[in-house]
Amino acid sequence: MYNIDRLFESVAAKGHVCVGLDTAAEYIPPAERQKAACDADAVLAFNRAIVDATFDTAACYKVQIACYEEMGLAGLSAYSQTLNYIRGKGGLVIADIKRGDIADTALRYAKAHFSGEFEADFATLSPYMGMDSIEPWLGYADSAGKGAFVLMRTSNKGMRDFEYLELNGTVPPQRLYHAVGNKLATIAAAHLGKYGYGAFGAVVGCTEREEAAEIRSAFPNLFFLIPGYGAQGGAAEAAALLLREGNGGVVNASRSILKAWSAEIGSSGGDAFAASNTFAADAAYRAAAEMRDAIQAAAQNV
User: What one-character-per-residue DSSP string does 157-208 give?
Assistant: First the structure.
């Protein structure tokens, strides 16, 4: 069974929310950060509280490795322990690592993130060195069910620098992100799960609503990791257009969930130093549940 099938089932049971544990130390309640031995310990304790509170509302979790690398070896330990904590509870985790090297190097990256101390269920990959940067990871799909989400049409402002370049001689006109999607669709057809999605999906942002329906129609066998919701300006209606029959995608939110406690205190005029991880986790649950309900409502109207 591919992990993409497990993710499909998790979406069906819990909704579309992917909680992004892109946890910067400054996102943590100040009192919790101060009492920890180091920032890495504070991040790990915060992550565990968030996971416990949101587990029944999150289809999966995405962990951005850069937030942990900046804290050095202690941070990488917190990264590893965060992955293990989620997977130990039976949850699915995406290692947001955006690797994109080739050949033997790609094989070593795949081994590092699909086994051992940094093992995750999915990884994010960059395709711009060519398909030989993607293919070395595929062996883990067949042997261990692993999956990946490949950068296709992202949610950042700079996406138009390259992803929107027009391809010569295509009728109808296509852009570079279409070429990535076409290659991924071929891979998907050769590694198709039982729900009709390939083991490897695509990263498709929800910040460009006018293109969402066209992208979903063009790539029906690709499961989407959908960034851009909330802090980056994406809305539930745009995210819903990237789904297929109410499934086929998870919508990531990080800051809007991790910092929900701060927003609640700010709106009530409370004292940030009075906040605890428990308070933060409860606020994260409310934010994730609200997001889940908004996407499900929008999906019913597509």
Answer: TTHHHHTTPBPTT-SS--BHHHHHHHHHHHHHHHSB-TTS-BSEEEEE-SS-
Residue 70 to residues 83, 116, 117, Cα–Cα distance (Å): 17, 21, 18
d(CA 154, CA 148): 15
Stated pTM of the model: 0.96
Distance, in Å, from the CA atom of 49 to the CA atom of 280, rounded to the nearest integer, reads: 8
Name the residue among 8, 9, 5, 74 with its Cα closest to residue 40.
74
Token couple for 21: 């544990």
**Averaged over 164-193, what is the pLDDT?**
94
- Which residues touch 25 (CB under 8 Å, ≥6 apart)? 33, 39, 42, 43, 71
Active site residues per annotation: 98
The enclosing H or E element of 249 equals: strand 249-253
Tokens representing residue 125 in the block: 């990959």
Burial of 216 from C-beta contacts in 10 A (0-12 / 13-18 / 19+): buried
With residue 3 as reference, give the H or E element that holds it: helix 3-14
What pLDDT was estimated at residue 232? 52
Tell whether the model's pLDDT for residue 230 goes beyond 80.
no
Name the region of 233 (left: φ>0; alpha: ψ -120 to 50; beta: rest): left
Chain center to CA of 119: 16
58: CB partners within 8 A, 6+ apart: 14, 17, 18, 19, 91, 288
Looking at the DSSP bridge assignments, the partners of residue 203 are: 151, 225
